[in-house]
């Protein structure tokens, strides 16, 4: 059970990039650290869900990148997509995202599993892809931030039009390290209860994304 084996199970247009990335020295070290963590501690998401967003959101379809922090650190919530959950209980951050969508469109998504966004080309990526139970940011500086930055670089190099939504300080820090001057970037506070009202609620974030997509002659997202 290691990250390199998981990458080799991905069978779509992400695979060439991911296989190349998995051979890099930092990634080998990251894989060892994650394997050790999962063998000794309770960690999330489930191991086979760590790269779930790469399986569900094919590279060719990506139109929007939503960048978060790290997975939910409580049992049965993290599912491999940023902010998403397969749990019937909607976590506070996602509840606030839905609150904003209701404010903008007068409707609420039917499911907390955001697969319906991923299949439309919304790439829901955390800056850190794993976490130890009860300890947010516990896998910071393991190497995930390098991986995330390289994923975003690949998107920038190969995609002409992408809208980036960076939610929270950790996402902002990753975005600022990239040359995204020719791309659309929307920065907001994190949708957690602690920061929701700072620079997110009532900002028409999702309408702005759709306006940019329509201006670029791309199909808007059904949020």
How would you describe the overall organization of this protein?
- The chain contains 10 helices and 6 strands.
- It is an alpha/beta fold.
- The longest helix is centred in the N-terminal third of the chain and has 16 residues, at about 25-40.
- It has helices spanning about 5, 15-20, 25-40, 50-55, 90-105, 115-120, 145-160, 170-175, 195-200, 205-215; strands spanning about 45, 65-70, 120-125, 130, 165, 185-190.
- The strands form 2 sheets. The chain has a 4-stranded parallel β-sheet. Strands 1-4 form a two-stranded antiparallel sheet.
- It has a single domain, classed as Uracil-DNA Glycosylase, subunit E (3-Layer(aba) Sandwich).
- About 35% of the residues are buried.
- The termini are far apart.
- About 40% of the residues lie in helices and about 10% in strands.
- It is globular, with a radius of gyration of 17 Å.
- α8 (about 170-175) links the parallel β5 (about 165) and β6 (about 185-190).
